[in-house]
Amino acid sequence: MAPGRPAFPRTVDGSAMNLEALLSARLAPALAEVAHAAVDPAVRRSQHADFQSGAVLPLARGLGRSPRELAEAVTARADLAGVAHAEVSGPGFVNLTVADELIAAALTDVAGDARLGVPQTKQPRTVVLDYSAPNIAKELTVGHLRSTVIGDALARTLEWLGHDVIRANHVGDWGTAFGMLIEHLLDEGATGVSRAADLTAFYQAARAKFDADEDFRDRARLRVVRLQSGDEETLGLWRSLVAESRRYLLSAYERLGVTLTEADFAGESGYNDQLASVVDELDAKGLLVASDGALCVFPEGFTGRDGGPLPLIVRKSDGGFGYAATDLAALRHRTRVLGATRLLYVVGAPQRTHFAMVFAVAAAAGWLPEGVSAEHVPFGSILGTDGRMFRTRSGDSVKLAALLDEAVTRASALAPDPAVAAAVGVGAIKYADLAGDRRSDYVFDWDRMLALTGNTGPYLQYAYARIRSILDRAGAFRPAVRITHPAERALALELLSFEPVVESVAATLEPHRLAGYLYGLASLYSTFYEQCPVLKAEDGVRESRLSLCLLTGRTLRRGLDLLGIATPAHL
RNA sequence: GCGCUCGUAGCUCAGCGGAUAGAGCAACGGACUUCUAAUCCGUCGGUCGCAGGUUCGAAUCCUGCCGGGCGCGCCA
Which nucleotide's C1' is closest to A535 (Cα)? Predict the structure, then answer.
C-alpha cells in the first residue's frame, strides 16, 4: 500500500477485501450490546441495498421489543464511520450501503494483489480427490465427463486456496475382463492395440468373441487365473494394455484441459496386495460375517430389498475380491499412507449407498479417525434433449472424442482460428457441465451451450476477449479505482465478492456458484461497457475505468481457470 | 416394498429460513458515425407439484400424498 494513503479498514481475520466480513465485524459489537449476547450479524447481499442484516428479526420476541426498534438501536450504536451507511427498512432489516470511497480503496488494493484479494487458507488440509476413474482398454465416454470435469474444477479450486490436493485417478485396470482382453491381444498379434482410437473396437471384438466362442471363453478364464497368480508373460501383456491406455487417456485429458497426469494414476491393481490385509483387519475387529460363502460386513442402518440387513461384500464366495474391498483398501491407504485428512469421491449419485456403506465400515474399522472426513460428491446424469439418458441413436454411450470433435466444429463457426475454436468448443461443454447444481441432471443441448448470450462458456470467453481488446488499446496505466457512475459501482461491488464466492465453492464443493458469479460479473461488465466510455473518458476516470476492465478481466480469467476453462485473448 | 433424489415462467435453469421469487432462451418493442452490436436496454410471462405443520417470516425446514429418476449381496 502506498504510504500516505489512509489505512484501509481491516477485518479481524486480516482479509482486507471481504466487505461482508468487514460489515459483520462492525455490526457485531452493537448487536451484542443490544441483545446482551453474541449474535451472528447475518450480513448478506441484498436487492434493496448493497448488503442487509436481518439479525434482529429473530431476537425481537425474546427481548420483548419490536424488530424495527431493535434495528434502530443497532444502527445507532454500530461504528460504521467511513464504511457504510445504515438504514432500517421493512420489518426490521438493516440496509447497508457501502461508502464509495471504501469500495474504491478496497478494489485498488485488490488490483495490487496477485491473488485478487483471496487469501490462502490458514488451515490447509491434505485432500485426496478421487475423480475421472475411467477403465483401461476402453474409450472415454460422456459417462466419464462429469466426474472428470467437476473433479478437476474442485482440484483446481482447493489447490489454489492452498490445500494439498492429491489427485487420485482410480482407473479400472484390473478384473476378470482382462482375461478376454489379453487373449484377444494375443490373437491379434503384437500390434493389437496400437492406436487409441481402436480401443472401443478392440474391447467390443474381445467381448463378441467371449460371448460367441466357448474355446475363447475358456482361454480367457484361464488367462484371468494366470494374471492373478502373477504369471510374468501375462503381466507383461497386461502392462502393455495399461501403458497404451494411459497414453490415450493422457492425450484425452490434455485435449479436455484437465490437470490429471501420469503421476495421478492410482489404478485398482495397485491395491491387490493390500486386500488380504483389509480382510484380516476387519476380521480382527470382529466386523466380518460369513454369508452365503462370502465375507461381509453389515453396517448398521442399511436394509436391503427384503428388509434385512444389507451387506458390504468384502470377499466374494469364490474367494475373489470385489470393488468394495478395493475401495476400502484405497481409503485405508489414503488416510494411513498418504496422510489425507479429507477424502473426496466425485462419483455419480447412484453410488450413494455404496459409499455410505464403505465410509461406515471404514469408520468402524478405525480408518477414519477424528479429524479425517470422507465425502461422496455425487452428481446427476447427462440427458439428451428428449429428456432421457444421453446416448447415440443406436443406444450406445457417446464417445467423448466424438463429442469434442463436434463441439470444435460447431465452435469454428464462431472462431475461425482452430486453437480458439477448440478452446471455445471444449469450454462450452465443460461450462455447461459446471454451470448447474452438480446433483441435478442436465440436458445436453448444443445450441444452448454454444450460445453467445446467457450463462454459457462462449459468453464469458467473449466478455474476456472484449476486455483484452480494450486493454490492448489502452497502453500502460496505473491501476486506481474511483466511483463516478452507478454501473461502475455495481461492477466494483461485485468484483469484491470474488473471495466469498471461491470460499463457498470450497466449502460446498459446488462449482456452479462460481459459474453463476462469473456470469453475473460479465453481465455487470457489459452494462458498464455500454454506459461508460473507457478510452475516451477524461483523465483519472479513464484510469479508473481501465482498472475496472483489468480487474474484471483478471477475475474472469482466474475464475474460468479454476473451472478449467481456457480464456483465449481474441475471439 | 424400503431408501435416496428431483418437481420453480412456454423451454433450460438459479435462488435452499428473510422484504415485491430471479436469469437466459422464446415472444414483442427499442439502441449501431461501436472501446469486438457475437452486445446492451425495456415489456410480457410464475396459486415455486398438492395438502398440512413448525416459525415473527417457508420456494427454502418437517410430515403425508401425487408424479419422474436412481439404488437395494457377490458388476464398478
Answer: B35
Amino acid identity, residue A347? V
SS3 percent helix, strand, coil of chain A, rounded to 5, is 55, 10, 35
User: At a CB cut-off of 8 Å and minimum separation 6, what does A239 contact?
Assistant: none
Query: The complex's ipTM?
Result: 0.95
Question: How far, in Å, is the CA of A58 from the C1' of nucleotide B58?
Answer: 15
Separation between Cα atoms, residue A303 and residue A73, nearest integer Å: 55
Q: What is the DSSP letter of A396?
A: P
Cross-strand pairs, A265: A169
Q: What is the spatial distance between Cα A144 and Cα A141, in angstroms, rounded to a whole number?
A: 6
Whose CA is closest to A559, among A102, A166, A160, A255? A160
Distance between the alpha carbon (CA) of A386 and the C1' atom of B18, Å: 38
Mean pLDDT by 10-residue block, N- to C-terminus, for chain A (571 residues)?
Answer: 40 60 94 91 91 92 88 95 93 94 95 94 96 92 94 98 98 92 85 62 88 92 91 93 92 96 96 96 96 94 89 94 95 97 96 96 96 94 82 83 94 91 96 94 90 94 95 93 94 95 94 96 95 93 96 97 96 88
Check: CB of residue A325 under 8 Å from CB of residue A275: yes
* Strand B lies under 7 A from the Cβ of residue A148: no
Return the H-helix or E-strand segment holding A34.
helix A19-35
The reply to whether the CB atom of residue A465 sits less than 7 A from any atom in nucleic acid chain B is yes
* Strand B close residues, chain A 199-258, CB < 7 angstroms: none
One-letter amino acid of A313: I
Whole-angstrom distance, CA of residue A16 vs CA of residue A219: 68
Which cell numbers in the block locate residue A176?
476378470
Q: Which nucleotide is nearest to A295 (CA to C1')?
A: B74
Q: Which nucleotides of B are covered by protein (CB under 7 A)?
A: 1-6, 12-16, 18-19, 22-25, 35-41, 55-57, 69-76
Distance CA A525, CA A519 (A): 10
Domain residue spans in chain A? Answer: 19-98, 177-261, 267-373
The torsion defined by the Cα of A41, A46, A50 and A54, in degrees rounded to 10, comes to: -20
**Paired sense of beta strands A312-315 and A294-297, if any:** antiparallel
A225: which DSSP letter?
Answer: H
The enclosing H or E element of A443 equals strand A442-443
Distance from residue A353's CA to nucleotide B71's C1', rounded to whole Å: 7
- Top CATH class, A19-98: alpha beta
Taking alpha carbons only, the member of A155, A112, A148, A118 closest to residue A133 is A148
Pairwise CA distance, residues A564 & A571, whole Å:
18
Determine contact, residues A365/A281, Cβ cutoff 8 Å. Answer: yes
CA of residue A290 to C1' of nucleotide B74, angstroms: 12
Residues 66-125 of A with CB under 7 A from strand B: 67, 89-91, 93, 95
d(CA A124, CA A568): 32
The pLDDT assigned to A62 comes to 83
Q: Is the CB of A534 under 7 A from strand B?
A: yes
Bridge partners (DSSP) of residue A98 are A84
Instruction: Please tell me whether any atom of strand B lies within 7 Å of the Cβ of A381.
Output: yes
A469 touches strand B (CB under 7 A): yes
